[in-house]
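Sequence of CbrC family protein (Pseudoduganella albidiflava).
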Amino acid sequence: MGTHTQSVMDRATSDTEKAKRLGECIVAWLVEQEIIQHRLTDCCYKPGYPPGPHYRRACGGIPESEREADYADFLQYNPNGMELSMTRNAFFNGQGDYGPARCPHCAAEHDIHLFYAAADVWLKGGEGELACMQCGQGAPVTAWEHDDLLFGTLGLQFWEWPDLSPEFLLELERRTGHRWTYMFGKL
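Predicted 3D structure, token representation.
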């Protein structure tokens, strides 16, 4: 079985103060839409926002006639909330056995172990720059592409939610003016 998560990581915000301001705006929008509640609980194994009565708005919606029963059922899950990360963090699929990381300049693939060393530096507050062995250009690990592992300063993780809708993800990008990357995970 396992626990399923969906993560979205802001690919443009690297400054912690900017991440906090933008994260607060995102929470306010989600609370206004009743997608999440405006309180923190242990609904994500650590503090997170519990789902609001219209949490399915982020997942493509649900017929109004089914909303109340669906919401009551979903509140019984644990975990079931949205975790907000506004500090340097790693989001991963939870299954391990990660493939290569791709250079943001030329898309050359590199062994994930090279990526780990730069990521460790970045997570500890350093630059975390990784040079591509093919094109020679360097970039921070936050710019490198990977299907199962992302590093960033602003991210949302939804625990056990139905699939997030493309419309929700597009609205998140429109509201922030930033590119967000989606990743499914299973613990």
